[in-house]
Amino acid sequence: MTTEEAARAVTESPVVILPAGAFEQHGPGMPLATDTIRAEQVCRLVAAELAGRAVIGPSLPVGVSPHHLAFAGTVTLTTTTLATVVREYVDSLHRHGWRKILVVTGHGGNNATLSTVAQDLLVTHPELQFAWTPLTPLASDVVAGMRVSEVHGHSGEAETAQMLHLAPHLVHEDRLTAGSARTADLDPLSRLARRSGHPALAVPYDRLSANGVLGDPRSATAADGRAIVGAAVASITAFVKEWLDI
Fold first, then answer.
1. Domain assignment present for 244
2. Contact between 38 and 163 (Cβ < 8 Å)
3. Do the domain assignments include residue 245?
């Protein structure tokens, strides 16, 4: 878009969608930018469904990933830095007239920061409506119906399936290997950290999995990825359509 097109978009496309991701290890078979790629592609699909009622803003390509720093190539921001960057994106967009901003994050490590920013914006920008969403949790029913490992998550079946659908040329299928796929594969501290219904406990990913993978990505299929992405896009699109009418 040019600056003139952006000026018109403030009224024609009153929602700005910001893709957020990470630059971190995704096991032996997927790129460091996996989370950003997924977020950008989902945002593109949502914007297409909204037929001009929303625009896609600049990506947030690096996220909060200190738990992956034991693996080569990982780059991270602190929670404070990511919060500052998000706020300054919002400040800029708000200055030009946008009042509805949605962040779509492909990286769960960004969630806590985005929640904090949302609370702060209620005070600093009371006339602004700021929303954010993760991706894969929006398709939990689809994931539950897949053939997934007892332990699954980062770089596992669901993420790999999405990449096989959205960017298959970036997946090294011959290098996909299982990681920690059973509770028995985890040490006692990692088992405690993964247990639901208890206080949250942060542990580095090299403690959870020697190769950074939770689950077995070899069973992932592009068809499963299409179903996950479709569910996420439908959920986000439905939200934005209702949001626009309020």
1. no
2. yes
3. no
Residue 94 identity: H
Looking at the structure of the chain, the number of domains it has is 1
Q: pLDDT tens digit string along 25-77?
A: 999 999 999 999 999 999 999 999 999 999 999 999 999 999 999 999 999 99
Element (H, E) at 44: helix 34-50
In 10 A of CB 101, how many CB atoms?
Answer: 22
Amino acid at 166: L
Within-domain flag for 188: yes
Q: Do 228 and 141 meet the contact criterion of CB atoms below 8 Å apart? A: no
Ramachandran area for residue 212 (φ above 0: left; ψ -120 to 50: alpha; else beta): left
- For residue 194, what are its two tokens? 């993964």
| CATH code for the domain in which residue 158 is found | 3.40.50.10310
Burial class of 175 by CB neighbour count within 10 A (0 to 12, 13 to 18, 19+): exposed
| Domain with 168 in it | 3-238
Residue type (1 letter), 72 = A
Structure tokens at 178: 């299982």
Dig out the tokens for 226 from the structure: 């299409």
Cβ proximity of 86 and 113 under 8 Å: yes
Identify the pLDDT of residue 52.
96
In a domain, residue 105? The reply is: yes
